[in-house]
Amino acid sequence: MNVFFPALRDGSSAPALRFGERRLSYRQLGAAAVPLAERLGGRTRVTVWATPTLETSVAVVAALLAGVPAIPVNPKIGASELAHIVADSSPDLVLAEPGAALPEALAALPRLDIRIGAAEQTSAQETDQDLVGSGAAGEPDPSRESDASAPHKVPVLPHEPGEEAPALIVYTSGTTGPPKGVVLPRRALAHTLDALEDAWQWTADDVLVHALPLFHVHGLILGVLGPLRRGGSLHHLGRFTSDGVSRGLSDGGTMFFGVPTMYHRLAVEVGADPALARALGAARLLVSGSAALPLTDHARLTAACGRRVIERYGMSETLMNTSVRADGPPATGSVGVPLPGVYLRLVDETGEVIEGDDGETVGEIQVRGPNLFVEYLNRPDATAEAFDGGWFRTGDMAVRDADGNYRIVGRKATDLIKSGGYKIGAGEIENALLAHPAVTEAAVTGEPDDDLGERIVAWVVLTPDAARPSADELSDHVARQLAPHKRPRTVHFLDSLPRNDMGKILKRQLGR
Ligand code: MCA
Ligand code: AMP
């Protein structure tokens, strides 16, 4: 039988999840997730209000057990982006922690509160009332109790669906228009997590520490489902601070996952913080991903704590493609070698496959393997465009060296911005700016930024007669429509945008 989380079946009192001081053992996780999975049976798709909490983790585990695709949503999402996701994915239920105030588009859906502790009790008596109301107060929260005295009870897991069944739909930005729903089958999740087990010698003894958001691949699939598939545990810090990382790693953590912005902040602070240096130095594995980690940050961290950070490379559509191996050469500055079962090739601009490995010839990375997504939801056109035969076109430009390591040197589309590890399409921000009544033209670029990697910069032309908005007002407008991390950090007001004879905006001339 196809079992996604073998350790849940054992129902042991080994630690599974910790968020702050709230913890669940595997037995407790099973006791919360299995009844919830039973309640989800028959649903088409569910949205998860993805706060960084035990509740989100329980909801996603339950959806996987039930075979119901889950759509994790950023709890800071703005109105128009949320409206798009709800209309595009048409979920029939929203899962949220009790008491969470949901925005209008989600409040209109049937709601099921994720009750840790009350779940077993309510599962047998589900009524429509349960689905819309907040239900009874429930039992004491076991996440605050010791598991030592609890009777050993193996939860009865539902029959899990086949490998190709969609497990998650994760929204990711393209260059234009609103984000697309990436449909990820169970097969892709299982493959990527098992390939990382091999590359990183990830075991049940590992305690992963991180502070990543739970509505993207990095924090949710690698960061929550990863430890649970291994039978190890996660210690989530709630939010990123260097102090939190220091304490988490000193308190039994063996691995840390972060985006380059987090490592940059650690690199800035580690020189003056011996406790942080000791904690990072004692970790078994420090892994960076979601964007490139600059060599200066690699060097500063290694000098201060004596450890190397390893990089891995992935995408929402492909999950993980390559990694520097824990048991291999350091390959600093590269994203390592293809993971087991994953095939990569470099293709030049004429469509020819680059055969050499001279470390200099640049081509687009294309990927094939069991780690790939199925399709963009409701977007057969975009799905077809994304593939070259069976190969997925990543849009990432790279070179390959004689040892088989890939080094990413840039991106094909300048209209894709990576800021703080989040992928953001220039087009979606331009559309949000143009929806402001005072804006008549807008262009958005990504400018280099030491902390964020790239900083979102907006160039706008105002409607002549409208009241002049401030830069902050336009930035807030984008934050409210899309999400705070998509807001422009700088806004330039221009009389006109540079355009070519065809009327196309010449972004490279902006600011010059
Ligand atoms: C600021 N804030 C606002 C506004 N301005 N809220 C509303 N309106 C505004 N105008 C709030 C923000 O919500 C936030 O609140 C706080 O102010 C600071 O925001 P910001 O400056 O944007 O964030 P930060 O503190 O600088 O965050 C840096 C970060 C973050 C922690 C590194 O960027 C982050 O978590 N990045 C992770 C991205 C990620 O997981 N990517 C994976 C996708 P508050 O302080 O309350 O939060 S890529 C992927 O999955 C692929 C597969 C891969 O390879 O991994
Ligand atoms: P997303 O669509 O949010 O999943 O972002 C995927 C993109 O993140 C990839 O196409 C790469 O451009 C980038 N990325 C992920 N990991 C790395 C890395 N280690 N180095 C450089 N870029 C990365």
UniProtKB/TrEMBL annotation:
Residue ranges annotated for the AMP-binding enzyme C-terminal domain, each copy included: 428-504
SUPFAM superfamilies: Acetyl-CoA synthetase-like (SSF56801)
Top-level taxon of origin: Bacteria
Region (Disordered): 121-160
Residues in AMP-dependent synthetase/ligase domain copies: 13-377
InterPro entries, per the entry: AMP-bd_C (IPR025110), AMP-bd_C_sf (IPR045851), AMP-binding_CS (IPR020845), AMP-dep_synth/lig_dom (IPR000873), ANL_N_sf (IPR042099)
Gene3D superfamilies per record: 3.30.300.30, N-terminal domain of ligase-like
Family, similarity comment: Belongs to the ATP-dependent AMP-binding enzyme family.
Protein name (database record): Acyl-CoA synthetase
Organism: Streptomyces catenulae
Lineage of the species this protein comes from: Bacteria, Bacillati, Actinomycetota, Actinomycetes, Kitasatosporales
